Amino acid sequence: MKFDDLDIKMRVYETSQDRCILPGMYIVARIDGRGFTRLTKEVHQFEAPFDEKFRDLMVETVKHLMNCGFNVIYGYTESDEISLLFHPNEDLFGRKTRKYISILAGEASAKFSALLGNVGAFDCRLSELPNKQLVGDYFRWRNEDAHRNALNAHCYWRLRYDNFNVREATSKIERMSNAAKNELLFQYGINFNNLPAWQKRGVGIYWKNVKKEGFDPKNNEHVLVNRRILHTDFELPMRDEYNTFINDLVNKYENPN
After folding, report:
1. Measured on CA atoms in the order 146, 147, 152, 157, is the torsion positive or negative?
2. C-alpha to C-alpha distances, 6 to 2, 12, 13, 48, nearest whole angstrom
């Protein structure tokens, strides 16, 4: 059998499960760390419950994903996960899901590992959302998940530092209301409301146009030029305000004029 014939024959098996995201659907990718509890608490022993160095590794990984060939308009990270919102008209690879999933997981794993100096692996899944309301709901979901996780993490690790073992700390906060958890932290001198916003709401990364000074060699003068940069937002809003923020962001790209 000639190679060309063999190639056609075998590619049928390789591509038989290919599917593409329909036009008009919003695409959100969630990239999640695999085995990061051991990696961050045992192997590298980042500060618990939150570590700025780890946060910055995740932010740089998000920025890399937003610059790796896909048209991503918003990146979000909390804990060891990343969410990416693609431009409504993104059509790279014909919107094949296997391409998005494999490339984003690979790019995230490679970038994070290079920054950390050790292997850190990510998986990836896609949400295909039919309207802007669901896009806003998705990111509010992750925003509120960050808030819930932050409250639990601060309670858990405060108890651990107070000589509670894993079972005791977990059991103590398992059935607590949010009010009771806040009171627990207050007993340790911590006002949850005063903790850094990035711990409670995650971090957003999006494109901004800024003026920067450049040099015009033709006229031998300094000039102001427009530059498109990735802005890191450590003070994201919550709940309805966050929905508005996401909807405004999508509208800007759908209606650029």
Report:
1. positive
2. 6, 10, 12, 55
> Structure tokens of 20?
């593409």
Model confidence pLDDT, tens digit, residues 95-125: 999 999 999 999 999 999 999 999 999 999 9
Given this model, what pLDDT does residue 8 score? 86
Q: CA dist 58 to 4, 138, 177, 179, Å?
A: 44, 20, 30, 30
Q: What span, in angstroms and rounded, lies between the C-alpha atoms of 201 and 220?
A: 47
Question: Is-contact 232 203, C-beta < 8 A?
Answer: yes
Query: Is 90 exceeded by the pLDDT of residue 256?
Result: no
Phi, then psi, of 229 in degrees rounded to 5: -125, 160
Name the 3-class secondary structure at 27.
strand
Q: How far is CA 212 from CA 115, 223, 226, in A?
A: 28, 8, 6
* Residues β-bridged to residue 225: 212
Average pLDDT, the chain: 93
By CB atoms closer than 10 A (0-12, 13-18, 19+), residue 215 is exposed
Tell me what pLDDT residue 257 has: 66
The three-point CA angle 154-160-161 to 5° equals: 90
Neighbours of 207 (CB within 10 A): 16
Residue 205, both tokens: 């990364």
**pTM to 2 decimal places:** 0.91
Measured CA to CA, the distance from residue 222 to residue 239 in angstroms comes to 44
